[in-house]
């Protein structure tokens, strides 16, 4: 994401904005994204966005299809490639899934299925992200909090530190991190927005090493996003894709 790299806008369907979270299937096709009107769409080269599924959100006692505001949209999505499923984490309504028979041929758009608002009796909080273990299909959820501040943690799943969480970055080193996405080489892209609450943010992509010990690079995205906050950076097939809260396109940087 520098001056030597080309930039393309993948424009969303009309009257939709805020591609907050992105996902790619097992063949790295996509990106898939949920739009501001409750559609799950997939980008196809030379075609544009194809409708794959739709949502019905339960807000209080009323069911509302699409037409969500910025806070009423799934903030995280990830594929379970063991079963052709996409999971979605919604801040208010919990966990959803869309199941596909095939990702290689067009199907009638599916309706997202609501799975849960709690786990073992514990309510799911203000869900902000999720990921799926590609080997086991295990699902991991994260929720937003105002208690612990702007930090990045590493949670050990196995080994001598199993079930231990370590804080590896605080806000003064990686300012206002949003989503974290792993690259095929094991490094991590973090979408950050320094000075987010001062209305002068410079959206920045931060690359950290596989151990979480070092910041490898920081890349300003201000030329492409003009102070609109970014939410996610992902790599697929030689392209880096950027999600955002406030624009009507996905940014694609040819590496």
Automatic annotation (TrEMBL):
UniProt GO cellular component terms: endomembrane system
GO-annotated molecular function: hydrolase activity
Transmembrane segments: none
SUPFAM superfamilies, A to Z: YWTD domain (SSF63825)
Signal peptide (from-to): none
Entry-linked Gene3D superfamilies: TolB, C-terminal domain (2.120.10.30)
Protein name per Swiss-Prot or TrEMBL: Strictosidine synthase conserved region domain-containing protein
């Amino acid at each position: 994401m520098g001056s030597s790299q080309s930039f393309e806008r993948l424009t969303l369907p009309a009257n939709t904005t805020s591609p907050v979270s992105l996902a790619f299937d097992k063949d790295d096709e996509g990106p898939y994204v949920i739009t501001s009107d409750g559609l799950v769409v997939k980008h196809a080269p030379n075609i544009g966005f194809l409708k794959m599924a739709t949502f019905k959100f339960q807000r209080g006692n009323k069911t509302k299809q699409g037409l969500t505001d910025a806070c009423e949209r799934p903030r995280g999505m990830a594929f379970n490639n063991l079963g052709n499923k996409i999971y979605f984490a919604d801040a208010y309504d919990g966990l959803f899934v869309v199941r596909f028979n095939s990702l290689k041929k067009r199907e009638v758009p599916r309706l997202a299925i609501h799975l849960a608002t709690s786990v073992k009796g514990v309510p799911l909080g203000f869900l902000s992200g999720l990921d799926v273990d590609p080997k086991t299909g295990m699902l991991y959820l994260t929720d937003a909090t105002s208690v612990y501040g702007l930090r990045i943690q590493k949670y050990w799943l196995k080994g001598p530190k199993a079930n231990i969480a370590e804080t590896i970055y605080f806000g003064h080193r990686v300012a206002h991190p949003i989503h974290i996405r792993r690259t095929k080489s094991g490094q991590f892209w973090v979408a950050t927005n320094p000075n987010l609450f001062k209305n002068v943010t410079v959206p920045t992509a931060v690359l950290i090493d596989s151990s979480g010990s070092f910041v490898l690079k920081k890349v300003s995205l201000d030329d492409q996003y003009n102070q609109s906050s970014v939410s996610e950076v992902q790599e697929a097939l030689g392209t880096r894709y950027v999600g955002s809260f406030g624009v009507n396109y996905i940014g694609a940087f040819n590496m």
